[in-house]
Amino acid sequence: MPELEITDPNDIVVCRYCKKSFNKKETEFVKIGEKYSHKHCAELEDKREKTDAEKLDIYIMELYKTDFVSPRIKKQINQFINDYNYTYSGIHKALVYYYEIKKKPLDTRYTGIGIVPYIYQDAYNYYYALWLAQQKNESKDINKYIPKEWEVHIPVPQRKVKKRNLFSFLDEEEEMNEQ
């Protein structure tokens, strides 16, 4: 009679990427936040090129320290795209500009990205200026602009002590003799 094996239901998890269930004790896995995935699925996911929408979602999850993008933020993103013709990469770059380049603190009272319409044009101008500078300097050789090093030797300062003329009776006698 075969031996029965008792499995813990907590050991059966679903892969985050391929959505197949597996036993944690029998399969190599990677824990990502509160979720699990096969090790090979996680490696494939790391190598895959992310879409602009995925990059935006990843940035928002890192920004708010969650493992999902809230429905409110999803609605805001869709509204920005439909109403203002923004792009996923534009929204992403606007948030990076505001929180990382301008070093503005994340206001924890609000759980949305409503700041985007107010900063989008400034972020666009910033990235456009970077692009123009890159285009202008693309053909230039940077080694020509690296300053040459000059080695300067400064002698150690020497203190020059002035000798004071001290009073001497001999000086007085010479002056008296001259008179």
Descriptive account of the structure:
With 179 residues, the protein is mostly helical. The protein folds into two domains: 8-48, no CATH class; 50-137, no CATH class. Helices cover 46% and strands 8% of the residues. It is built from six helices and four strands; from the N terminus they run ββββαααααα. The chain is elongated, with a radius of gyration of 36 Å. The relative contact order is 0.07. The mean pLDDT is 87.
The largest sheet has its strands arranged as 1-2
For the sheet with most strands, the description reads: 2 strands, antiparallel
Helix amount: 40-55%
**Radius of gyration based on Cα positions:** 36 Å
Structural class: mainly alpha
Low-confidence stretches: none
Strand content: 5-15%
The helix tally amounts to 6
Average pLDDT figure: 87
N-to-C CA distance: 141 Å
Number of strands: 4
How many structurally independent domains? 2
Run of helices and strands:
EEEEHHHHHH
Looking at the structure, what is the overall shape? elongated
